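Supplementary Text 2. Reproducibility record for the structural model of the 61-residue chain.

All settings were left at their defaults, and a single model was retained for analysis rather than an ensemble. We include the record here because the model underlies the residue-level annotations in Supplementary Table 4.
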Amino acid sequence: MAEPLMTLEAAPLLGVPLPDPEPVPGCARCRYWDGQRSDARRSGDGARATDCNVHIRRHPH
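Retained model, structure tokens:
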């Protein structure tokens, strides 16, 4: 039987977080996600705020 591994892996290198994307002026979807992001930040939901950033970045304009 193999010996169990008793060491930890190195910590991942994450880098600096990206700045929040700016919603495109006049885009209703971007404005919606920007509002959702603001609500998420006020309620302390960082994961939801990050999801909103992803939606804004990936929205085709």
